[in-house]
């Protein structure tokens, strides 16, 4: 659980490294006694960098100081309601002293709601794959290959897209 925790004195670079390590989009900001101070998202940092033009500094003035949370004795239904109403992906769980004792991740509450579609046959519709654009975000790669032909594991991006359509009975 502590891998989601970050200190308000942490640098922006440390936060970015932590996002990269844990693969989540939210970190829980705590003091040295694990009291909840706030949350910070990768979007918070992105907006800060775009507004200031720098990656220097710490997260103290970036993180959300009024995060959504639940108490340890609250129900799962309350957690679901808060997550749905506020569109939060991670919800800290605190005790009566505001110490973070756990957290709830969106997928833990809602994964049973997702059903994977099994096609019952072919669907007779046309498909258009939009594959235009300059590919500037992947500039170092797209100078060599167009984005649809970039490899991801053992297939190109466009092959992954085609395979997704096939799973749904299209193509």
Automatic annotation (TrEMBL):
Entry-linked InterPro entries: CBS_dom, CBS_dom_sf, GutQ/KpsF_isomerases, NTP_transferase_dom, Nucleotide-diphossugar_trans
Q: Which GO terms describe its molecular function?
A: transferase activity
Q: Which SMART domains match?
A: CBS
Q: What Pfam families does the record tag this protein with?
A: CBS, NTP_transferase
Gene3D superfamilies given for it? CBS-domain, Spore Coat Polysaccharide Biosynthesis Protein SpsA, Chain A
Domain CBS: residue ranges: 1-55, 63-123
Does the keyword field hold NADP?
no
Query: From what superkingdom does this record's organism come?
Result: Bacteria
Q: Which UniProt keywords apply?
A: CBS domain, Transferase
- The protein's name is Nucleotidyl transferase
């Amino acid at each position: 659980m502590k891998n989601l925790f970050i200190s308000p004195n942490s640098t922006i670079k440390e936060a970015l490294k932590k996002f990269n390590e844990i693969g989540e989009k939210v970190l829980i900001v705590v003091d040295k006694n694990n009291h909840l101070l706030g949350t910070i998202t990768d979007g918070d940092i992105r907006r800060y960098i775009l507004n200031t033009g720098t990656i220097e500094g710490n997260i103290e003035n970036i993180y959300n100081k009024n995060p959504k949370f639940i108490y340890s004795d609250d129900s799962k239904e309350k957690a679901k309601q808060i997550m749905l109403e506020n569109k939060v992906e991670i919800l800290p769980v605190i005790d009566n002293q505001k110490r973070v004792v756990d957290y709830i991740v969106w997928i833990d509450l809602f994964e049973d709601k997702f059903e994977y579609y099994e096609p019952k046959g072919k669907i007779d519709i046309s498909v258009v794959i939009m594959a235009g654009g300059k590919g500037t975000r992947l500039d170092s790669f797209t100078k060599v290959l167009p984005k649809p032909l970039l490899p991801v594991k053992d297939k190109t991006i466009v092959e992954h897209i085609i395979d997704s359509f096939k799973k749904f009975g299209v193509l």
